[in-house]
Amino acid sequence: MNQIEDIATTDPKRVRVLDGAMKVFLAYGFSRTTMDDIARAADMSRPALYLLFKNKTDIFRAIAMMVLSRSVGAAKMALAGDGAFAARMMRAIDEAFISMMSAVVASPHGAELVDMKSSLGDLVGCWRGGLVEHIAAAIQDEAARNGVDLAAKGLSTQLLADMLLDGLEGMKARISDPEGQRQAAAALVKVIDLTLRA
């Protein structure tokens, strides 16, 4: 199991802080948000907040862990669900990638929050690793179901999963509209789906 999936936030106080802080960061941005703002959003005192988190950067990283963990979990569930391969893959991409980012990007301070991604390199790496693991497993299952030998085509499940995520990253940089992203993602998935047919 990937490390990002192991991170479970079970303390209700921490969850309340993270949910409240996320709303505040989206409304005011990271730089303008204070620990007082977060404490108010979590309906607790500032000293009580400091017992749980050392500063707002610590809170931001914890939010990122929570969001990325939920993203990997949503992708895993979508890929394991019912339906055709392409439909399951599109559900996974939408839930773990497109919808997850839509709320952030649409907020007044979304650009600032997205720019902070570079400070979360280790978490983003774990998140991507979790997605690749589940996508590669779904590709492997579909190839086996269809009797397709990917190695004979000079491909591997890892390569296809990485190619899909690289394509999604590039698409995100080029297309800001979520509906346009879904259309571009569907084209990527179609290429992989065709590769998995005998």
Automatic annotation (TrEMBL):
Gene3D superfamilies: Tetracycline Repressor, domain 2. It holds the Pfam family TetR_N. The keyword Transcription applies. Transmembrane segments: none annotated. Residues 18-63 form the HTH tetR-type domain. This is TetR/AcrR family transcriptional regulator. Keywords: DNA-binding, Transcription, Transcription regulation. It comes from Mesorhizobium newzealandense. The lineage of its organism: Bacteria, Pseudomonadati, Pseudomonadota, Alphaproteobacteria, Hyphomicrobiales. The keyword Transcription regulation applies. It comes from the Bacteria.
